[in-house]
Amino acid sequence: MTGQILGGASPVVAVKYQLVIMMAIWVMMSISIVVCLNLVVYRGFDASGKPKIRPQTNG
């Protein structure tokens, strides 16, 4: 936003670009979280909801 203002753009236009960039970051972050959680649930739990990972035993 500062670069656009220093480059001669209108502050209103700079704010609009900044809001679009912030929304794009938020959307991609949300998609990443959903994909990550789905992978964890798919790989970490069976159909009945029990964890697939067995605890380690010392021995």
- Largest sheet at a glance? none
Could you state the order of secondary-structure elements as H and E? HH
| Overall geometric form | rod-shaped
Helix content: 55-70%
Tally the structural domains.
1
Helix- and strand-based class? mainly alpha
**What's the mean pLDDT score?**
89
Number of helices: 2
Strand and helix map with partners:
Elements: H1 2-6, H2 11-44
Please tag this protein with its features.
rod-shaped
Question: Explain this structure to me?
Answer:
- It is a single chain.
- The protein has 59 residues and is mainly α.
- The chain has one domain (2-44).
- It has 2 helices and no strands.
- The chain crosses the membrane at residues 20-42.
- It is a multi-pass membrane protein.
- Belongs to the UPF0014 family.
- It is found in: Membrane.
Q: Summarize this, please?
A:
It contains two helices and no strands. The protein is mainly α and 59 residues long.
